[in-house]
Write a structure and sequence with these properties.
The complex is a heterodimer of chains A (276) and B (243). Chain A is mainly alpha-helical and 276 residues long. Chain A has two domains: 56 residues; 210 residues, MetI-like (MetI-like fold), CATH 1.10.3720.10. Helix content of chain A is 79%, strand content 0%. Chain A contains twelve helices and no strands. In chain A, helix 5 crosses helix 8, helix 6 crosses helix 8 and helix 7 packs across helix 8. The longest helix of chain A has 33 residues. With 243 residues, chain B is of the alpha/beta class. Chain B has a single domain, classed as Rossmann fold, CATH 3.40.50. Chain B is built from nine helices and ten strands. Chain B has a six-stranded mixed beta sheet with strand order 6-7-8-3-9-10, with helices on both faces. Classes of the chains: A mainly alpha (276), B alpha/beta (243). Chains A and B meet through helix 9 and helix 10 of A and helix 2 and helix 3 of B.
Chain lengths: 276, 243
């Protein structure tokens, strides 16, 4: 990949021959040491960049103050996981409903789906959070912030899930639906035995990708004072004035959740590519 | 089978796919529909399959009227079998599961009964070796033969075939037609749209020639294919058989 990019940019081809440990070549297995060497180079490069930035800043990292509030951070971390898990289940239900309802014969339902999906996908989450919290939740008399947070994230993520479900269903050839009909399957049976088994394996990779977004996006809930991970870091920062010491663990914490998910996603993409 | 069609009409955007078509046949076991593209053969077959609703007209198959409300259509579809041009096996299921699924879910057979039926057909047509393969691993001819087995396993009252060999490489046409022939010998009654004139002439006991949504001629194959007085039909047949 890198080699191909270099080749296109006009770099002389013979660097690939003089330094073969830096390039991939087509159809050849790359030994583990070569990967390790290249990973090492990248890590060194990044470390140098970070060091350069910090020394230009002239800032000494002091961890004691933040360490004192570690339990707040850990609590926030698990609140984020809890919000994500509950929202994930709810948004899957919402996504499935609106994904299917877009194919409904009820015209109003179709319009409703379109409006919901376009509005949610076309407006900033920040605005949605504020409107939902100050208008909808207030009108409905909900004051449990955790519950409000879960509702907002589910409604937001559900719109994206609905689009994933819809595109999955549309990827099933109409001839298959007709064949099922001609064999005497009812509509419910057709979805149960023909459509869903194929759709699920096709949409699992994009769905897990959506989960990673859900986790990161939940950080915006901090603006309505839900004490999730980002809010915890903001609070620690406000009391200790150790900005970087508060936000660096925050970034690492999010990576701890999202990296395994993207790993799983790429594994699944490979698996289902072979299955298809 | 008995087939009685009266004044059947179906329009697509002002185009008459079926134009006031009527016919009455008794004691036919293999009915073949021929004619140029766009003559309405496939539309007629789809109406008979319960997949298309006509604008007007009545149909009786074996004296049972074909009604076009969804409940009647559903039970009608369970009685008849359809094989499409594009073989249309379900890609996520093995060959065997493609046959078993409609038997267990639509026709209420136990899994053992369904398996037994599938295996009988697969071994009868020398397809047992392919039973665990997914459609993508099978050739077009093999897929279409499995699709034929899937439909035959339903023991349909009538089997409808819509150009079952048109999407195939020529080398696979024979193996598919052999299987159709084998099913005929087992007593399955069929209505088939085809461009295989040789097969139509040898396997049909009645041929309908359609043009512009109407029946131009119908009769025993020899009446249609040999010395037909109708110039339109003669021109079509000699063109089809030219090469």
């Amino acid at each position: 990949m890198i080699a191909r990019v270099l080749e296109k940019s006009g770099s002389p081809v013979n660097t690939r021959e003089t330094m073969p440990y830096l390039f991939l070549s087509d159809g050849k297995e790359v030994p583990g040491q070569v990967w390790g060497f290249n990973i090492g180079l990248v890590v060194l490069g990044i470390a140098w960049g970070v060091w350069a930035c910090f020394s230009a800043l002239g800032y000494d990292l002091v961890w004691e103050n933040v360490w004192h509030y570690r339990s707040n951070m850990i609590q926030g971390f698990f609140t984020t996981i809890a919000i994500t898990l509950v929202s994930l289940v709810l948004s899957l239900v919402i996504g499935l409903f609106f994904g299917l309802a877009q194919r409904s014969r009820v015209i109003m339902l179709r319009i409703l789906c379109r409006v919901y999906i376009e509005v949610v996908r076309g407006t900033p989450l920040l605005v949605q959070v504020l409107i939902f919290f100050y208008v909808v939740a207030h009108a409905a008399g909900i004051d449990n912030r955790f519950f409000v947070g879960v509702c907002i994230m589910s409604v937001f993520s559900g719109a994206y899930m609905a689009e994933i479900v819809r595109s999955g269903i549309e990827s099933i050839a109409p001839s298959q639906l007709e064949t099922a009909r001609s064999l005497g399957f009812t509509q419910v049976q057709t979805y149960r035995y023909i459509v869903f088994p194929q759709v699920i394996s096709r949409i699992l990779p994009p769905l897990t990708g959506q989960v990673a977004s859900l986790i990161k996006d939940s950080s915006l809930l901090s603006i309505i004072s839900i004490r999730e991970f980002t809010m915890a870091a903001r609070e620690v920062n406000a009391t200790t004035f150790s900005t970087l010491e508060s936000y660096i663990p925050l970034a690492i914490g999010y990576l701890l959740i999202t990296l395994p998910i993207s790993f799983i996603t790429s594994r699944m993409e490979k698996r289902y590519k072979h299955a298809a | 089978m008995q087939l009685k069609i009266e004044n059947l009409t179906r329009n697509f955007n002002g185009q008459k796919a079926l134009d006031n078509l009527s016919i009455s046949l008794t004691n036919v076991t293999s009915l073949v529909l021929i004619g140029p593209s766009g003559s309405g053969k496939t539309t007629l077959l789809r109406v008979l399959a319960g997949l298309e609703t006509p604008d007007a007209g009545t149909i009786r198959i074996n004296q049972r009227p074909l009604l076009f409300d969804e409940a009647s259509l559903h039970s009608h579809r369970k009685r008849i079998g359809v094989v499409f041009q594009g073989y249309n096996l379900f890609p996520h299921l093995s060959a065997e599961e493609n046959i078993v699924l409609p038997l267990t879910k639509v026709h209420g057979l136990t899994r053992e009964e369904a398996m037994a039926r599938a295996h009988t057909l697969l071994s009868r047509f020398a397809l047992t070796g392919h039973k665990d393969k997914k459609p993508a691993q099978l050739s077009g001819g093999q897929q279409q033969r499995i699709a034929l087995c899937r439909t035959a396993a339903l023991k349909p009252e009538v089997m409808l075939l819509d150009e079952p060999t048109s999407a195939l490489d020529p080398e696979f046409t024979t193996e598919v037609l052999d299987l159709v022939h084998g099913l005929q010998k087992e007593g399955i009654e069929l209505i088939m749209v085809t461009h295989e004139m040789g097969f139509a002439a040898s396997a049909a006991d009645h041929v309908i020639f359609m043009d512009q949504g109407r029946i131009l001629a119908n009769g025993r194959p020899e009446e249609i294919f040999k010395n037909n007085p109708n110039t339109r039909i003669n021109a079509f047949i000699s063109k089809v058989l030219k090469y």
